[in-house]
Predict the structure of Site-specific integrase.
Amino acid sequence: MSTVVALPTNPSALTVGRVAELFLDSLANPNTLRGYATAVGKTAAKLGEDRPLATVTDDEVGEALESLWGQAAVGTWNARRAAVGSWLSWCRERHEAPAVPRWCKRLAYWDAGTARLLPRLLKGRCGGPVFTTHRRPGPGKVLGPRDTCPDTGLARLSYGQARALLDAHTAHRGPGTGWDLHEFRHSALTHLGEAGASLLLLMAKSRHKKPENVRRYFKPSDQALAEITGLLAPGDSRR
């Protein structure tokens, strides 16, 4: 849980550096603090730590992010952008502050294999859903514009269809023995939990109303368990 920190009431005392320090001090989770400290600290230094926060513009924030991590890996860019966005949102709840500009967008991640397959999947399409069915919807089925490809008229692939296709292409011992699309839900919650996400955030992400339902999905790896066990015995574990 975050610590409640009051900002100074004197506008001249609300410098970029001071507000960055107060924000980081409000973070109780050490994993979050460790990840945010780099992004917030470097961005504050780039903007000018002695500047009044109210004088910083949205575009300056975006330019600072581009300068610091514009050439970084997609995962690094998204993480740094998200951290700075959280910092500035926290500031705006308490005082006048800039925001990450809209042109400074979050990037989607594709590995090399996906990138090579993507053109075959899109087949020249430049809008609409990425995954579509192989036929147009029937006359009795009404779909919204977001669920229909504007170029081909094909409908968005439903969850049930995607689940059946995944099983069909990965099954080795007959129908129902392949990968289950639902397993990706387990993996996502596990990775979020290992990254330090709280139970409330996991519940919000998975849309579960009961904590015990989320626990079924969270299966930490041996490495994650070893790391948390190491907290009980800092230093050389052989002593």
The chain has three domains: 11-92, 112-170, 183-224. The first helix runs from residue 16 to 25. The chain has a mean pLDDT of 81.
